[in-house]
Every structure is written in C-alpha cells, then in structure tokens.
Amino acid sequence: MAIGNFAFSACISVRRPVYCVMPRSKFQNQLAVKLLALLCFGGIVGSTLVAIVSTRYGWPMLLELASHFQLQYFGFSLVLLGLLLLTRQRWLILISLLCISLLAQQILPWYLPHLPTANTALLRVLASNLNVNNFDYSRLLNLVQQEQPDVVVLMEVNDTWGKPLAPLHRQYPYWFGLSEEASAGIAILSRSPLENSQIVRFRRDSTPSIMTQLTIDQHPVSLVAVHPLVPVRPALFHRRNRQFAGMSEQIDRSNSLIVVGDFNATMWSPYLQMLTAKLGLHNSRKGFGILPTWTTPSPVSPFPAWLAPLLAIPIDHCLISQNLRTIDMHTGAPVGSDHLPIVVDLAISNGQ
Q1: Of 32, 171, 253, 269, which one has the greatest count of Cβ atoms within 10 A?
Q2: pLDDT digits (tens, 9 = 90+) for 86-116
Q3: Environment class of residue 327 by beta-carbon count within 10 Å: exposed (0-12), middle (13-18) or buried (19+)?
Q4: Is the pTM of this model over 0.85?
C-alpha cells in the first residue's frame, strides 16, 4: 500500500485501481447548513402565511380549501423547526418560533377544557356519514349498541340500508328521513318523539336537510341535520356556500338549537365561521380537541391506508346554541366509511 499526500486531495492506492478522496471544504459545509436553514425557515413561514390568510379569506376556492389543514401545517412546521435547530441559525429560529406560536393559536384552544357548569337534561347524539358505497352494516349496529345514543343522525343513507337498520326500530321507534341512491340521503332515528319534521332545501340548489324538534326533560330542542355538497369544483363550492347562507337565514333560533352533520368544511373555513356566528352557535368540539373525522382508512377511502391519517381533517360537526353545553365529545369506532362518527353528550345549562 502506498500513500501520497497532496495539497488538495489524498489518494489511496491499494494496488490498483487508485481511489481519490476529496475532503469537504469548510465553505461547502457552511453553505449546506445555510441552505438547509433557509429551506426550513421558508417552509415554516410559508405554512404560517397560508394557515393565517386562508382562515380569513374564503376566495379563491383553493385558498378556502387550504384553510382545512391547520393541524398539518402545525405538525409540518414542528418537524422543520427540529431540523432548523440543528443549524443553530439563531435569528431564523427565533422568527420560526414566533410563526409556530401563531400556528398553535389555531390548534391549542380546541384542547383547553371548559369550566364545569351545572347541567340538566342530558342528550347523547351520534352522527355518522355512512358513505354511499359502504355495505358493512354490522359495524354501525355495533357502534349504536356500544354508544347508546338518544338520537342517531345518518348521512348518505339509501334503500340498501333499510333492512339492515330494521333491528334499531325497537330501540329507536321514531324515524324521519330521505333515502336516495346518490349521496344526498339523510335520516334521524330517535328514542323520543320527533315533532314538526320536514325535509328542507335552504337554497333551490342545496342538498336536502332535516329540520325537526324533540323535547328533553320538558325543554324543546330544535334539531337540524345537514350534509352540504363537497366543494371539489367551483360550482359545488358556490352551492355549498349558498346553502350555508340559507341556513343562517332560515333556521329558527327560538328554541335550544343543534345543527349536526357532515358540513364538508372545517371550523377554520371562513364560511363555516360566518354561519356559526350568524346563528349564534358554538362548536361542541371546544375543549375536546381537533377530532379529525375524514378521511379514515377504509375500503371506500380515496387515499391509501398509510396516507389517510396524515391528511385527516375535522369536517363532521355538532354546532349548538349558547344555552347548551358539551359534557363530552369523541369520535366513534369506524363503521366502514371514510368518515369517523362523532358522539356528543349535551346538556342544557341551568339558569339559561
């Protein structure tokens, strides 16, 4: 073995061939570190700008679509911050921490617990988008037996579900709904009588919704079940938003009010924020976390099983009037759909 030293390289000859090892210069190392720092910093700042701006402006459609992924922006930025810390670029790290604190303001308030209040008239609501292509009937029946809700709200229900749901008739004798082969089917099953039930369209081109009333411990409660269109194209985007506008104008607020269903929008959407504010409602999620509901791994999910949890967003909601309080909210066991069910325990506050 022969070893020769040169000014810019070290060549190691082991008989033949000859291998040359080029040492990395200090300048190259510094350049790579700065490039990594700038890429991480740019990703954090970009995520923050998209996250903040998209929650305030609902146009164009893609900007509103971007508002739904606040949890992903936060998680992505935390990963980039970890890499940025390795570069020791102090000012970039400080600015990035400020950006991440802004992202955290979109996430953390949903996990802050509420002060306990005196409540009466408990009501458990289960809402589930079944997916029109889901035929795994037994999982829904098992979920209902497990959760024992007082009211069951089903979306994308059609005639094929009629016979499988029949065993629930004894437990839930009061049914009202619309069965359609398309994804517009919607139904309410209740232990208590449903009064003044009607199928409504809040705009001429809206999907059908249900408006009904029930009495809980002598308290009248208005219940509205909705499933607006998926805003995947501009025309559908505008129709969904028109339905939100119609809901804010036509829903009666004289009683305690529950608006529940698959809204095809997250709580960060400017349009859903506007609807919630105009109706004077609040989201029952507050204090119980983000609780993503779509998409979840299933045979009918549009995404691979490994990707679905990473893209999951909360689009199934239970919006309630100010005199109602959420005692508990959680997602139920999968029912074979690309949505997870939501289960909400509600109570009417004393003195309200």
Answers
A1: 269
A2: 999 999 999 999 999 999 999 999 999 876 6
A3: middle
A4: yes
